[in-house]
Amino acid sequence: QVQLVESGGGLVQPGGSLRVSCAASGNIFSVNAMGWYRQVPGKQRELVAAVTRSGIRNYADFVKGRFTISRDNAKNTVYLQSNSLKPEDTAVYYCNAQITDDRYSTMEYWGKGTLVTVSS
Asked: How far is CA 56 from each of CA 3, 32, 35, 53, 68, rounded to the nearest angstrom?
């Protein structure tokens, strides 16, 4: 019954900005690491950014200086602020989280994805 729901994707012009959000809900005891991945057709899913519960962040080289990951532990939500977007950032963005449920079982969960299209 644990699920991740993304929101905030859409169409943005090159050089523009977009923020996507992901909220975890259900029978949650704690949300541990959270992150964002992306995938384009024909390519493997790749890590964009991740953040631990304590706030330690990790970024892929191709987004450093442009994207910022953050989280609100009280809301079990992770955000990805994307600036200076490029056409090559076009992809389906997936939320990922390691969650311990109320039975103390820890598993990795994925959202269904949100499409970000960077185009003029």
From this structure: 23, 11, 11, 8, 12
Cα dihedral sign for 74, 98, 107, 91?
positive
- Percent over 90 (pLDDT), the chain: 99
Helix (H) or strand (E) holding 36: strand 28-39
Q: What is the pLDDT of residue 72?
A: 97
Question: What is the Cα–Cα distance from 37 to 88, expressed in whole angstroms?
Answer: 14
Question: Per-residue pLDDT averaged across 75-101, rounded?
Answer: 98
Q: For 46-64, how does the pLDDT look when each residue is reduced to its tens digit (9 = 90+)? A: 999 999 999 999 999 999 9
How far from 66 is each of 25, 62, 80, CA to CA, in Å?
A: 29, 9, 10
| Sequence-distant (≥ 6) Cβ neighbours of residue 61 within 8 angstroms | none
